[in-house]
Write a structure and sequence with these properties.
three-stranded mixed sheet, six-stranded parallel sheet, alpha/beta
Length: about 290
């Protein structure tokens, strides 16, 4: 089976490598020459234009920064007269409404679309242990399950088109709000004279525990290493998707509004490419204390 991979960024590149290791014939595209050359060395065929992928691959997978870029790639591929591809798995984090629109567009060209956002970070992509949340037709899910199991350890078919994007959006909405609350709480604790090791040990064994406490404290905050991980810019984008959806639902989201402001402030201070734990640095500066 020939698979096309469009988008070889922090997540897309290791996902592509997992597909190659599993023995799939891979046809890949990315705007970055460096990424193209790296996956070529692993055995993939690379292209100078995304539109060429639809002519070569049976199944297209995309891992792109936002819905507008996904739409641009769909336009480029469906603009070709002849298409080999009949299935599209979109791993990008987008709004449910965007997923539904893309499914409709691709159906006109005979391509079945599934929104399949992933969770688990870069390390999960490297190890092939991602959590995959798939939304789309039952028959398409059955067709691609083996492929998804190549990149993920936990594969969920959560409903029709848009459901995958919806659950990923809800998850990342909670992640952003939890990180904002944790940053304030940890700085408050430090201001009271509590040390980080004590807060970590107690909170992770108490009702305040969360992924932020269990993962981000030992891997980022204790090490004072705020690079890599899940970038503030990406979390800000995902919060924006949730806020747009809430607006469409006429739903007030008080916690989300506060979290958006905190992430927006962090971006203004130049922390956009840092891990989301850089919110701690922002709060430290405000209170003139270091969480340690």
């Amino acid at each position: 089976m020939k698979i096309g991979m469009i988008g070889l960024g922090a997540m897309g590149l290791p996902i592509a490598k997992c597909l190659l290791k599993a023995g799939y014939e891979l046809h890949a595209f990315d705007l970055a020459e460096k990424a193209r050359q790296e996956i070529k060395k692993e055995g993939a065929s690379v292209y100078q234009a995304a539109g060429d992928i639809g002519l070569e691959a049976d199944i297209i997978m995309s891992s792109l920064p936002n819905a507008s870029i996904v739409e641009s790639v769909i336009n480029e591929i469906t603009g070709r007269d002849e298409l080999r591809a009949d299935t599209w798995l979109d791993l990008s984090s987008i709004a449910p409404a965007s997923a539904a629109a893309f499914a409709g567009r691709l159906k006109e060209k005979g391509i079945s679309y599934m929104d399949c956002p992933v969770s688990g970070g870069v390390q999960g992509a490297v190890q092939g242990t991602l959590t995959v949340m798939a939304g789309g037709p039952d028959e398409t899910f059955e067709k691609v399950t083996e492929i998804l199991e190549t990149i993920g350890k936990k594969i969920y078919h959560v409903g029709g088109v848009g459901a995958g994007s919806g659950i990923k959006m809800v998850n990342n909405f909670m992640l952003g709000c939890n990180m904002a609350a944790a940053a304030e709480a940890l700085v408050m604790g430090s201001r009271l004279g509590l040390d980080l090791d004590t807060m970590y040990e107690i909170i992770r064994n108490s009702s305040g525990r969360s992924f932020i406490i269990e993962n981000k404290i030992p891997n980022f905050i204790q090490k004072r290493n705020f690079s890599g991980g899940f970038a503030i810019d990406l979390q800000y984008k995902d919060l924006g998707l949730a806020m747009e959806t809430a607006k469409a639902l006429s739903m007030p989201v008080h916690m989300g509004s506060t979290a958006v402001q905190m992430f927006e402030t962090a971006r203004a201070k130049g922390y956009g490419r840092d891990d989301i734990t850089a919110l701690v640095k922002m709060e430290e500066e405000l209170m003139d204390v270091e969480v340690k």
